[in-house]
Amino acid sequence: MKDPQKTVGLMADKCKVCYISYIDDNGYPVTKAMLKPREREGIKTFYLSTNTSSNKVKFLKNNPKASLYFVDNRFYRGISLTGTVEVLETQEAKERIWRFGDKMYYKGGVTDPDYCVLKFTAEKGRYYSSFHSEDFDID
């Protein structure tokens, strides 16, 4: 992969769904599909919306280690980012990524206590394409 910033950025921006993996209370990995990140800062920091009452929030508060996976089904390639998640429940964080139509998921609007933000910070990545995988660092 010549340019991780460009490759990861394009894939993250074009996907409709990404996958988050985290560890449950028994030490087992759990993977969930989520709507694509609402915002990103390069390929290091990604912001996603979710329900505060979800199991993923409960488990991530206990163990913040996680990964995000983006897939391009058309060309059978994918990118896994490994890092940590911080659960943000401040009004500022909620307003930052709130979008029109979110009330469909969070009936109480931007102040809904069951709405929070996951801030994923990547530490490293792995890219797969054409039967080849390679690791890369996050700058």
How is this structure best described in words?
- The chain is globular, with a radius of gyration of 15 Å.
- It has helices at residues 4-14, 55-62, 91-97, and strands at residues 17-23, 29-35, 39-41, 45-51, 65-72, 77-88, 115-129, 132-137.
- β1 (17-23) and β2 (29-35) form a beta hairpin.
- The mean pLDDT is 96.
- By secondary structure, it is an alpha+beta fold.
- Strands 1, 2, 3, 4, 5, 6, 7 and 8 form an eight-stranded antiparallel sheet that branches.
- 19% of the residues lie in helices and 47% in strands.
Measured by DSSP, the beta-strand proportion falls in over 45%
| Low-confidence spans | none
Mean pLDDT: 96
Number of helices: 3
As a percent range, the share of helical residues equals 10-25%
**H/E element string?**
HEEEEHEEHEE
Number of beta strands:
8
What coarse outline follows from CA principal-axis ratios? Answer: globular
Distance from N terminus to C terminus (CA atoms, Å) equals 15 Å
Question: Largest sheet at a glance?
Answer: 8 strands, antiparallel
Q: What's the gyration radius in Å? A: 15 Å
What is the structural class? alpha+beta
